[in-house]
Amino acid sequence: MLTETFNHLLNEYGKDVYLNDETTSRKALINSTSVTSSYKENFDDHIIHTNFPIQRGDTITINNEIFIVVSDVQLKSDYEYKATIRPCDQTIEVIVIEQN
Questions:
Q1: Which of 31, 37, 32, 34 is nearest to 13 (CA)?
Q2: Does 67 have pLDDT greater than 90?
Q3: Which CATH number characterizes residue 29's domain?
Q4: How far apart are alpha carbons 37 and 45 in whole angstroms?
Q5: Is the pLDDT confidence value at 65 over 60?
Q6: Taking the complete model, does pTM exceed 0.85, yes or no?
Q7: Where residue 59 falls among pLDDT bands split at 50, 70, 90?
Q8: Is residue 7 within a helix (H) or strand (E), and if so which, with residue range?
Q9: Sign of dihedral through CA atoms 58, 60, 66, 67?
Q10: How far apart are CA 98 and CA 100, in angstroms?
Q11: How many domains does the structure of the chain reveal?
Q12: To bridge 16 with a disulfide, which of 25, 34, 87, 89 should be the other Cys (CB 3.0-4.6 Å)?
């Protein structure tokens, strides 16, 4: 019963999100949160609630803005995954050199 209720909330109020490089959208609930680090910097963190598995390091695209999962993922009662996401506004270029 809770699974159906959660899925109903996702369908009614969830935002379209894309996991990593997927081209098909999924639904997730996004909450804003105010987190201050020990360095006194404010981050634009959000809490994501999904019914599909996510893990730290995954990228989530919401309205063409890329976020990265920065926290451990909590599994709530076998139907809800919850984690903290943060805007990923920097691009890191990775160069792979193959040696023979």
A1: 31
A2: yes
A3: 2.40.10
A4: 11
A5: yes
A6: no
A7: very high
A8: helix 2-13
A9: negative
A10: 7
A11: 1
A12: 25
Residue 100 inside a domain? The answer is no
d(C-alpha 96, C-alpha 61), whole Å: 25
Q: Which helix (H) or strand (E) holds 5?
A: helix 2-13
Q: How sure is the predictor about 22, in pLDDT bands with cuts at 50, 70 and 90? A: very high
Task: Give the helix/strand (H/E) hosting 66.
Answer: strand 65-69
- End-to-end, the C-alpha distance of the chain in Å comes to 58
Which domain range does residue 39 map to? 2-87
Going by C-beta distance under 8 Å and a sequence separation of 6 or more, which residues neighbour residue 2?
A: 77, 79
Sorted by sequence, the CB contacts under 8 Å of residue 77 that are 6+ apart come out as 2
The answer as to whether 53 is a domain residue is yes
Spatial CA neighbour of 25 closest among 74, 64, 69 = 64
